[in-house]
Amino acid sequence: MNPAESGPTGSSEQAKLLDALTKYVMTELSDDSFVALVEREVDYGLESARRLTLGDVVTQEQVVAVALKYASDWRIAGAIPELAGEIAHRVHIRTLRQVGEELSDVVPEDSVAELSEKIATMPAFHRVVDRVYHSPVSAQLAAWFVYHVAVDSLRRNRALADTIPGVGTLLRLTGSLSSRLAPSLPHIVDVRFREVTERITHYLVAHSHSLSDEETPESIVAAAMELWDEHAHSSLSSLGSAITSEDIEDFLILAFEFWRDFRKTSYFKAIVSEGIGFFFEKYSDQTLADILEEVGVSRQDMIEEALRFAPPIISLISENGMLERFVRRQFEPFVNSDEVRELFT
User: Fold this and answer.
1) Cα gap 148→194, rounded to integer Å
2) Which helix (H) or strand (E) holds 107?
3) Cβ distance 211 to 133 under 8 Å?
4) In angstroms, how far is CA 40 from the centroid of its own chain?
5) How far apart are CA 306 and CA 34, in angstroms?
6) Which residue from 116, 129, 128 is spatially nearest to 218, judged by alpha carbons?
7) Which pLDDT does position 153 carry in this prediction?
8) Is residue 34 part of a domain?
9) Residue 176 and residue 84 share a domain
10) Whole-Å CA distances, 262 to 153, 170, 256, 265
11) Which residues on adjacent β-strands are paired with residue 53?
12) 48-86: per-residue pLDDT in tens?
């Protein structure tokens, strides 16, 4: 047995004192007494919080050091990303594949409209659209699209012509004759057609206004809402079937790898430092009670959460003897002290 748990080494009066203290604490932590204790201590704590400011109890440097320790320097164990992947797999099965809710049940239409309007009015969004619109890659893709649409149209028209008596035979004869007289003609025509398509497309893009110049935010929002209306009543299970749990896990891995590198950058550390610095500029001189009230933590919230979690834990450690041993460890040095021994002399 641990010496600290062996009981008082002094007189029987000291042993009785330790027993009385232990019994008192155990009683205070039981049932109705514990409720009264929580309410009383929360009130005492809030009263003290009205006399202390944030700057009195902690410094900006202390908070920055702790934040950077856990956000930037703390080593992330391999079990964390593995656990995240397993949770993603479970969430995908239970919430995307086995639920009957529609997309509109999860994402309100008003939220989609407000988000679309906000994005459409952002100058950064217009700059991105303008860069993409005038990008050589975009022009090349547009030329490729126009070329293939034209070729597909010609093929469909040729198939239609083959169904007309006489016309199909005429086209096959002329094609056969041209292939014998100029074997490379079809390839040359195809290359020239590609070149013309690319030149026309590049010219139109270069001499036209960008989408961001001509399209109003209202039209962009309308297009987004039209897309929303098409999928608002799609079930989450149908959307989930398009995304596998492996896809989600891959995304989490990519996000984790980005975060692992990004959190080491000086830019991230500057963000943390500036954010905490601003918080202290705003709240350093305010009392702790005012800060709690401003962030929405009330007296009732504190009492409710204390009564939610503490009673089951106290009941458990009371039954297995851990609570009594803890209380005795706290008071035994005091009971065995010279000051207490002199009281009983």
Assistant:
1) 10
2) none
3) yes
4) 38
5) 10
6) 116
7) 57
8) no
9) no
10) 50, 67, 10, 5
11) 287
12) 999 999 999 999 999 999 999 999 998 887 788 888 888
